[in-house]
Amino acid sequence: MEYDTEQRILADLELSRDIMTRTLEDRPLRAALARAVGLVTAALSDGKKLLFAGNGGSAADAQHIACEFVARFNFDRAPLAAIALTTDSSVLTSISNDYGFEQVFARQIRGLGAPGDVFCGISTSGRSPNILAGLKVARECGLTTVGFTGSAESPMLELCDEALRVPCDRTPFIQQVHITLGHILCAIAEERIFGRASAATAAP
Question: Quick check: 189 and 42 in contact, CB under 8 A?
Answer without folding.
Answer: no
